[in-house]
Amino acid sequence: MRSVQDALTGEIFEEYAVLSVDELSRLCAVEPAYIVELVEEGVLSVTAVEAEQWRFAGTALRRARRALRLQRDLEINLAGVALALELMEELDALRRELAGRTAGAFREDLR
Amino acid sequence: MEFKDYYKVMGVARDATEAQIKQAYRKLARKYHPDVSKEKDAEARFKELGEAYEVLKSPEKRAAYDQLGRGPQPGENFRPPPDWGSGFEFSGAGDGASDRDYSEFFESLFGAARRGRGGFDPGRGDPTPGDAGRGLDHHAKVMLDLEASLQGGSRTFTLRVPEIDAEGHLSAKERVLNVQIPKGILSGQTIRLAGQGGSAGSGAAGDLYIEVDFQPHPLYRPDGRDLYLELPVAPWEAALGASVKVPTPGGLVDLKIPAGSRAATKLRLRGRGIPAAPPGDLYVVLQIALPPAGDEKAKAAYRALADAVPFNPRAHLGVSA
Fold first, then answer.
1. Domains identified in chain B and CATH numbers
2. Does pTM top 0.95 for this prediction?
3. Count of CB contacts below 8 A, A vs B?
4. Which of residues 50-69 of A touch B (CB under 8 A)?
5. B45-79: per-residue pLDDT in tens?
6. Which residues pair with A11 in a beta bridge?
7. Which domains are seen in chain A, by residue range?
8. What is the three-class DSSP state of B46?
């Protein structure tokens, strides 16, 4: 066991990253064509076009990797992945809302 | 090492057909997939499931596994028999799903067949050409306390990193990392640590990407860069207005409750959410807390209020008080 080193300093990737298709595909370890498929299916959105090249926000990384894992592990096609991601986002939003309501109800019960 | 009953993991009979095994895998994979599941041990269960499926879906591996018989029971100390694997050729580990790290049990049986493979959750396939000589990027996921984002500071994480030994076996090694948390990081964002990924001999090391999610916080509920705080107030504070002390990430503040506030009223404290750029807001959500009618004095006060204030809380239901 080595001793704990000085803290490593990193950056928040999403705050600065602007990714090309090639960069995003390298980060996801997939062929660039797969990134194009994700865009065509509406899983990823292109945030800008520079010199006829697509640019993605840093948030695309996590989304693309999530899509990839779902497709690979659950053996579903891209349309299914797109639907699953949308439904999961909706579910997350509902869970957040519910968390607020139950917290309130719980506190009233305490009294 | 522990014997693993892959049939039990998948919930299928020992004579299950290939179709039944596939069906069981798909059903359980949807249930325990770490991206989908909210179950606490989802990640471990999914890994175990992937491993079981890897063995049972391949006729060669399944036959070899079955040959172990029912000798050792799950959880018992297990050693592969000396003649293990003779006559079987394990060739099926070709798809991306086999890039996970496996249990010691799996490695002892099938590890040698995976010689030379590696990579820590590299997604699908091999790195694209053009970055030969550069180490692989690693990706990890951590749960972070909200305070780390609110105040900054360093946190220590233990990550499992794959390592390929001289015999080509892939195993997970624990790596302890002390990371300075960027103040204002949000759930769903990623800390990039340059040069902390996989090494590649002479080439540049890859980077380490750490996905961050927040653990539940006792006071604040984060939503993007905003925070929500449930604030109980007494009926008279809501009705008459009041100034009350409220905790915020920056310390206690005095908050003015407007007269005539109702339950679930949201009061916004601008800029007092997560200190991102720009900072989020803190929403204080009012909850009306009822004082108990515990003694005669309190009961008398409630009765006096009932007498003094004509009030039908059920008017909108068309019911008279």
1. 6-114 (1.10.287.110), 138-214 (2.60.260.20), 220-308 (2.60.260.20)
2. no
3. 139
4. 58-59, 61-62, 65-66, 68-69
5. 998 999 999 899 988 888 888 877 655 555 556 66
6. B192
7. 13-109 (1.10.1660.10)
8. helix
